[in-house]
Write a structure and sequence with these properties.
The protein has 304 residues and is mainly α. It contains 9 helices and 3 strands; from the N terminus they run E-E-E-H-H-H-H-H-H-H-H-H.
Length: 304
């Protein structure tokens, strides 16, 4: 479980402090929706020892079974290297389009018309390669609901994907826990909140970096300089951390627990159970807007 998330509440124009952000991107004209991709399960290539595979590549093993790469790998055996590969069921039990995203770039632009140019559609889709189950679990409606839920929460957290890092610089020195054996090699003030779900504290940078295979403990600035890494940290939290809630955001959406449980997993200790109903309402309104853009129902249990 992520410890001491201590996220700074970002409240749009009411936020104060210095931000190293660039100019806002203007709204982009709507583009045609992307055509439905080819069913890649039906044409999955045979696995080849020593070939280079990227996360979410699908292969047919020598016994005829289908596997999906969970992480980039140099042709490891899917039946041996379960860290890198997972069995894959084509059809309604999984996503037959492993290299697609249920949110088109035009829809992403509609959701974030004034986003900071640091946050890009490509950065998000590149980050998703590290999390093959995100927005690729269940039927089309479930996949779109999960995508809308994640995007609604990070929109709320960042003022519409505007803020890259924590506003209050006075907090920066507080996020170093010297009791950890690895200390704070990047400096006392290096582990402030960054990214779409603000990652803070040295031990959280280490945990996220270890999972992603990126040395964020020594280079936490990568979260504010690399769009894909920034999104990876948000997806890491969404897919692996339940925070103050009982389940992760991903599990909340694919289990039917509902959007309200994603709020609880991100900031439930401060917002849920009457803690801050206005913040909860803000998240719900964004989720309703985004599911509307994607053309799916919201599902039940919206509030926490």
């Amino acid at each position: 479980m992520l410890r001491n998330r201590m996220k700074a509440l970002l409240t749009g124009l009411a936020a104060v402090g210095s931000l190293a952000t660039t100019a806002l991107v203007p709204a982009t004209a709507s583009a045609a929706e992307a055509p439905a991709p080819v069913d890649e399960c039906a044409v999955a290539p045979a696995w080849s020892k020593g070939a280079n595979y990227q996360a979410r590549d699908i292969v047919k093993y020598t016994d005829g079974k289908i596997y999906v790469a969970q992480r980039d790998n140099p042709g490891y055996d899917p039946t041996v290297s379960t860290y890198y590969w997972a069995p894959y069921t084509c059809g309604t039990g999984g996503n037959p389009y492993p290299n697609s995203f249920v949110v088109s770039e035009a829809q992403f632009d509609r959701m974030f018309p004034n986003r900071n140019p640091f946050y890009t559609y490509k950065g998000l889709t590149d980050a998703m390669k590290a999390f093959p189950k995100f927005a690729h679990t269940g039927d089309d409606t479930m996949r779109k609901q999960e995508a809308a839920a994640f995007l609604a929460n990070i929109s709320h957290e960042t003022g519409g994907l505007y803020y890259i890092k924590e506003v209050n610089e006075a907090n920066y020195p507080h996020y170093c826990d010297r009791n950890e054996p690895y200390g704070c090699p990047a400096g006392q003030s290096a582990y402030y909140g960054r990214g779409p779900i603000q990652l803070s504290w040295n031990f959280n940078y280490k945990a996220a970096g270890d999972f992603l295979g990126i040395d964020l403990l020594n280079d936490p600035w990568k979260v504010e300089t690399d769009p894909a890494v920034a999104m990876m940290t948000g997806l890491w939290y969404w897919n692996t951390q339940n925070g103050p809630g009982p389940i992760t955001g991903h599990d909340a959406m694919v289990s039917g627990a509902g959007f309200g449980q994603t709020i609880r997993s991100i900031n439930g200790a401060l917002e849920c159970d009457g803690g801050n109903p206005r913040q909860v309402e803000s998240r719900i309104n964004r989720y309703k807007e985004f599911t509307g853009i994607l053309g799916v129902p919201t599902g039940s249990s919206l509030s926490c």
